[in-house]
Amino acid sequence: MATTHTHSAARLMMAPSVILLFAWMAVPLGMTIYFSFLRYNLLMPGMEEYTGFLNYQYFLTDPAFFAALTNTLLLVGGVLAITIVGGIAFALLLDQPIFGQGIVRILVIAPFFVMPTVSALVWKNMFMNPVNGLFAWISRSLGFAPVDFLASIPLLSIIIIVAWQWLPFATLIMLTALQSLDEEQKDAAEMDGAGAVSRFIYIVLPHMARAITVVILIETIFLLSVFAEILVTTNGGPGTASTNLTYLVYAQALLQFDIGGASAGGIVAVILANIVAIFLVRLIGKNLEA
Amino acid sequence: MGSITLRNVSKVFGEAKVIPSIDLDIEDGEFVVFVGPSGCGKSTLLRLIAGLEDVSGGEIVIDGKPATDAPPARRGLAMVFQSYALYPHMSVRSNIAFPLKMAGMDKAEIDRKVADAAKVLNLTDYLERKPRQLSGGQRQRVAIGRAIVRQPKAFLFDEPLSNLDAALRVNMRLEISELHQQLQTTMIYVTHDQVEAMTMADKIVVLNKGRIEQVGSPLDLYRKPANLFVAGFIGSPKMNLIEGEYAQAQGAKTVGIRPEHMSLSHDSGSWAGTVTIAEHLGSDTFMHIDVDGIGTVTARADGDFACRHGDRVYMTPDQNRLYRFDEKGLAL
To answer: Which residues of A are less than 8 Å from B82 in CB distance?
Structure first.
């Protein structure tokens, strides 16, 4: 009896936060689904009417949609590849005892604290600018023609900017994992005749599998919704060369004032995110089990 | 095969001189135990021999060949660690096979050797399990298995039993001794437990503050301790060390008498005292006795000797087994 009481009391106590959280998620989602079935354009207020799946049809057959889908996946994949490999490399370096270790570690973490718009602007104006940028100056002083990064390779430029922001996060997680590796295991591997490379492959990497999984899952969640960097640098262009799903939805809603179409796009994005999530959890989720 | 020689070996960590200078000869096939209190440098010495730490000075010769600058893998030694250091993501089979795989041995040969080692150590049924699914004793055996497959010149054990419970520890002690009888390979064993040292060793090296206090067979150390430190460290319970008038009367700064070398009586003896604590173990009784004019003394009596807290007892130290030490703590 006592436990039954405790259970119902606990449920009662938890109810407000559960209801609040649920409402927070369900109401916007419900409204988005509702809007996605309306012909709802801000330029024609008061003319909303039910259109069935027409919004979805337009959104999914829009050539920009496929460009955006490819860009989204390339962006996520590219940044993940750079941050995982780079993060492991940096973590291995930072794990070595060096002079001024504390300061170096803070410097490495720093990019994570810079807000996305600021770092995108810094990259755009100070590094990638074809006239005043550092990269342009380097290539000119070596006798090459400067590359106009954001015009000729916009998606790659954005991948570089976003990877720069997320590298510290990956490094931090990897470094923690690396430091929790038992010294005696490394010693044992050394006694067993494993060289530095074998030790890394057979001992260090398997030990870091869980950390790598965490980095992939968390970064994927955030990278699917990269927006500020695109808005500040390329505005999704040239054409749709650097438009991802998030930016496409924004353009639909606030540049073309098509709330119905944007809502349909939002729902499509949610479904795609879930597909990616299921795929990831199936693929690497077992690493998280103890 | 597996003789190891240390000449003037020293180790310095920054400012701290962990090992000032050590000379030591280990014969082939010997079971040598490094024993000493924690922080005496015994583990460091083992790691120097293994090659996991670089020596600051001196030289190490293994099997007649200079090994001072050789990397650990080249020295042909195998080590069993305190935490076992098994690779958690590998099965028992892969753990044992790892050193062979690193040596580039072919698959069939590896399988055969792993199977042999597993049979010797009773691990055949566990080969597909992960280390976390094993008990402490089994993990210990896997660690030993990983060491024996390589057929090393010598085994190094770094406090391998300290994570096991008391009953298992006694068992594993026997197993390691049996293994030594079977393989006849040099073994170096580090422990802070003098019981392990006494029961397993052919030769004990007593270390204190990075210096060798004495080297000898277990009974040598027990019967003829070279100094106060060894006298106090070897033997359980500890030797009673008595200073003051009684010692001066014997012509020494300190006099040592082991608890088992005193005869106890209820009515007569050269010392009289009051029992403060009596520990009845069944076979023996250990008594802490407050002796008039001397201080607290530990004595061993037969398990049948009746006594309890507060009793008056008399005891007579065996004059032939009295140890005398001078001002520097050296035996006279």
So the answer is: 184
Question: Are domains B4-232 and B240-325 of this chain identical in fold?
Answer: no
CA distance B53 to chain A (A): 10
Q: What is the CATH number of domain B240-325?
A: 2.40.50.140
Could you list the residue range(s) of the whole structural domain that residue A231 is in? Answer: 56-288
ipTM: 0.81
A47 lies in a domain? no
Strand partners, B65: B62
Q: In this structure, are residues B250 and B257 in contact, taking their beta carbons and an 8 Å threshold?
A: no
Closest Cα in chain A to B155: A191
Interface of A with B in 131-190 (CB under 8 A): 182, 184-185, 187-190
Q: Where are the domains of chain B?
A: 4-232, 240-325
* Residue A81, in any domain of the structure: yes
Q: How far is B110 from chain A (nearest CA, A)?
A: 14
The dotted CATH code for B4-232 is 3.40.50.300
The total of structural domains in chain A comes to 1
Residue A18 lies in a domain: no
pLDDT tens per residue across all 332 residues of chain B: 688 999 989 999 888 888 888 999 999 999 999 998 888 888 899 999 998 988 998 899 998 888 888 888 888 899 999 888 899 999 999 999 999 998 888 999 999 999 988 888 888 888 999 999 998 888 988 999 999 898 889 999 998 888 888 888 888 899 899 989 988 999 999 998 888 899 999 999 999 988 899 999 999 999 999 999 999 888 888 899 888 888 888 888 888 999 999 888 888 888 889 999 989 888 889 999 998 888 889 999 888 888 888 888 998 888 888 899 988 888 88
Domain membership flag for residue A4: no
